[in-house]
Amino acid sequence: MTNNKTYFVANWKMHGSVNSVQSIKNVIKLSKKPKYKNTKIVYCPPYTLIRQFVEKTKKTKIDVGAQNCHFENNFGSFTGSVNANMIKNIGSKFVIIGHSESRISGDTNKTINLKIKSAIKANLKIIFCFGETLKEKRNKMTNKVINYQIKKGLHKIKNIKNIFFAYEPVWSIGTGIIPKINELDKQVREIKKIIKKNYKAKNAKILYGGSVNSQNILALKKISSIKGFLIGGASLNSKNFIDIIKKTIN
Ligand code: PGA
After folding, report:
1. Which of 12, 175, 212 to mutate to test the pocket of ligand 1 (most atoms within 8 A of CB)?
2. How many CB atoms sit inside 10 A of residue 211's CB?
3. Which runs of E-coded beta strand occur in 5-162?
4. Alpha-carbon gap, residue 39 to 61, rounded angstroms
5. CA distances from 75 to 27, 138, 167 (A)
6. Whether 91 contacts 64, CB under 8 Å
7. What kind and span of H or E run contains 61?
8. Which atom of ligand 1 lies closest to the CA of 234?
9. Which residues pair with 167 in a beta bridge?
10. Helix axes 142-153, 181-199, angle to 10 degrees
11. What does each of the 250 residues of the chain score in pLDDT, given as a tens digit?
C-alpha cells in the first residue's frame, strides 16, 4: 500500500452493548504507537453507543462514525430516524451511506443521494458504499451497476473531497468469500476510472469491504489502489481487528 493514510473502518452493524466500548482499549493502545501514525481507525458502532465511543477515543486519533442517517437536515417528525447534524453534534466525524444492508431495508439511489448531500452539509466524511449482487456479477453487469450506483448516488454533487468510495460486492459481505485478487485489482482500477471521468478526481479514496479477515488481508493489501478496508464481523473482536491492522501495516 502506497502513500498517505490507510483506513480501517469497523462497521459494527447491529452489535454491541454498554460494556462493549471497554473492548477497544487495545486498539486504542495500538493506534498510539508511532508505527501506526499513518493509520486511521474509524469505529462505526450503532447509534446507541456512538457517544460512549466518542468519549473513549477523545484523546486519540481514532474517529467515530454512524452507520446511516436520514436525508433531512432539520429536526422533524421522522420516527426512528437520526439526521446528519445530530450525528455530527454527538462527535461523530463519519457516516456510512448506501450500505447494501441499508439498501435492502429501503434505501434507494435517490435517498442515498439526498443523504450524501445532507451529510456533506453537516460536514461529515462519507463512506459511500456500492457493489453488485451475485446475480449481477454472473450476468457480467458489475461495471454497469457500479457506474449507475456511483452516478445516481452522487447526482449533482461536485465536491467529492469528503467522500470515501467503499466497494462492497454484496456476495462477499458476511460470506467469507472475497473476489479473486487480480479481479479485484482490475475492478478497483475500473472504479477509479469512473470517478476520474465523472469527477476529475485522480486521488479518490477507495476502500474495499466484504469478508476482510486476518487471513485474507495479506492478499488484499497487495492491491495498491485500495486505501483501506471496511470491516464488519472481524472488527467486533479487538484481537482480530488488531491482527488485520498489524498485517496490513507491517
Ligand atoms: P463483513 O461486512 O466484513 O462482515 O463481510 C462488511 C460490511 O458489511 O461492511
Report:
1. 212
2. 21
3. 6-11, 39-44, 63-66, 94-97, 125-130
4. 9
5. 35, 43, 31
6. yes
7. none
8. 3
9. 130, 208
10. 40
11. 444 899 999 999 999 999 999 999 999 999 999 999 999 999 999 999 999 999 999 999 999 999 999 999 999 999 999 999 999 999 999 999 999 999 999 999 999 999 999 999 999 999 999 999 999 999 999 999 999 999 999 999 999 999 999 999 999 999 999 999 999 999 999 999 999 998 888 789 999 999 999 999 999 999 999 999 999 999 999 999 999 999 999 8
The set of cell numbers assigned to 125 is 466524511
Q: Is the CB of 11 within 6 Å of ligand 1? A: yes
pTM of the predicted model over 0.90: yes
What's the CA gap between 250 and 245, in Å, rounded? Answer: 9
**Residue reference for cell 454484496:** 170
> Which run of H or of E encompasses 89?
helix 84-89
* Ligand 1 pocket check for 206: Cβ under 6 Å: no
Residue type, 40: K
